[in-house]
Specification:
Radius of gyration: 20 Å
Helix content: 10-25%
Family: Belongs to the iron-sulfur cluster assembly SufBD family.
Number of helices: 4
Organism: Actinoalloteichus caeruleus DSM 43889
Strand order of the largest sheet: 1-4-6-8-10-12-14-16-18
Protein name: Iron-regulated ABC transporter permease protein SufD
Oligomer: single chain
Length: 375
């Protein structure tokens, strides 16, 4: 396969064999420890368990369907762009489609829970969330359990619809998850997506946003906390291909413990036809202990000068001992002071979570992470 010179030339296919088996030197795979993927990347991981999806029932204006591979709606948000995503597409037997009807606004969030197949087993799956014209909904996509999982998730946001999604990766310690998220944003539509990654041995999530018509607005937020030995990887591509669309990306991560590793790759492409684009992306990482490593690579590719604005930034730094000293000098115990500093670091993202029980759960999880190392 010829290396791409632009993200706009990224190869996509539903066929597994259209992609070469990654060897680790490819740009898309150079940060990923392939030996820990349990065969998801080379075709040796066959499905031995089930991809279990449970959705809240009885939410007014929301329908849930289990459909076969032949359903014409599947694939509406995007096509696999790597071998694992293509393998997941080729291997799932049933897909879950969650549809928010046009002109409706459910009173509360729609909870979608994906449970892993269990320790020592592998599963593939597919979920699609659809917000039809003028719909306004909040969806919580919650991953939990054990095992090895690869999946594709689609978010289809119709004309003038508003979809807010919170994805929580709270896997058991042994889990491996490689996921591809595809978003299609319609005319004057809004997508707000927060990705939270806490659990799992290895989690790699690749997210792509495509704009279908003018006026689309996407905000992509991320929060991740890696412990000793964990590998958490987030890859984003925001593809501005039509005029007058907006995007904002903000991901923050904390790391602690020997061998903790996070990877954030943020690609924003402004194609020649995408005049009037406004975009910015930022990644910040806080390293709490020795032995942890954060890789952060923001990329901005612009093919037209007729834009409203574009920028990117990345920063990785150690825990600020001066802040800790300042708080301790005012009588605050060290463990509480550390908690306050980390909470403050994540506060900008936590305050944007509109589901109180999710926000409280994440705050408790952050406290537990810090307590695990005797903070």
């Amino acid at each position: 396969m010829i290396p791409q010179s632009s993200r706009g030339e990224r190869f996509t296919s539903y066929e597994v064999d259209a992609f070469e088996v990654p060897g680790g030197r490819e740009e898309d795979w150079r940060f990923t420890p392939l030996k820990r993927l349990r065969g998801l990347h080379d075709g040796s991981a066959t499905a031995t368990g089930s991809f279990a999806v449970a959705v809240d029932s009885g939410v007014e204006g929301v329908t849930v369907e289990t459909v076969g591979r032949e359903d014409e709606r599947l694939g509406a948000a995007g096509v696999p762009a790597d071998r694992v995503a293509a393998q997941a597409w080729s291997s799932f037997t049933e897909a879950t489609v969650v549809t928010v009807a046009a002109d409706t606004r459910p009173e509360g969030p729609v909870h979608v829970t994906v449970t892993g197949p269990g320790q020592g087993t592998t599963a593939y799956g597919h979920v699609q969330v659809r917000a039809e014209r003028f719909a306004d909904a909040v969806v919580v996509l919650d991953y939990r359990g054990a095992g090895t999982v690869a999946d594709n998730v689609e978010f289809v946001v119709g004309e003038s619809a508003r979809l807010s999604v919170v994805t929580v990766h709270d896997w058991d310690d042994d889990a491996v998850h490689v996921g591809a998220q595809h978003s299609a944003v319609g005319r004057d539509a809004t997508l707000r997506h927060l990705s939270v990654t806490l659990g799992g041995d290895l989690v790699r999530v690749s997210s792509t946003v495509n704009y279908r018509e003018r006026g689309g607005d996407a905000e992509l937020l991320g929060l991740y906390f890696a412990d000793a030995g964990q590998h958490l990887e987030h890859r984003l591509l925001v593809d501005h291909s039509v005029p007058n669309c907006r995007s904002n990306v903000l991901y923050k991560g904390a790391l602690q413990g020997e061998g903790a590793h996070t990877v954030w790759i943020g690609d924003v492409l402004i194609q020649a036809a995408a005049e009037g684009t406004e975009t910015f992306e930022l990644n910040r990482n806080l390293i709490l202990t020795d032995g942890a490593r954060a890789d952060s690579v923001p990329n901005l590719e612009i093919e037209t000068g007729e834009i409203e604005g574009a920028g990117h930034a990345s920063a990785t730094g150690r825990f600020d001992d001066e802040q800790l000293f300042y708080l301790q000098a005012r009588g605050i115990p060290e463990d509480v002071a550390r908690r306050l500093v980390v909470r403050g670091f994540f506060g900008e993202i936590l305050q944007k979570i509109t589901v109180p029980e999710v926000r409280e759960r994440l705050e408790a999880a952050i406290d537990a992470e810090l307590a695990a190392v005797g903070a």
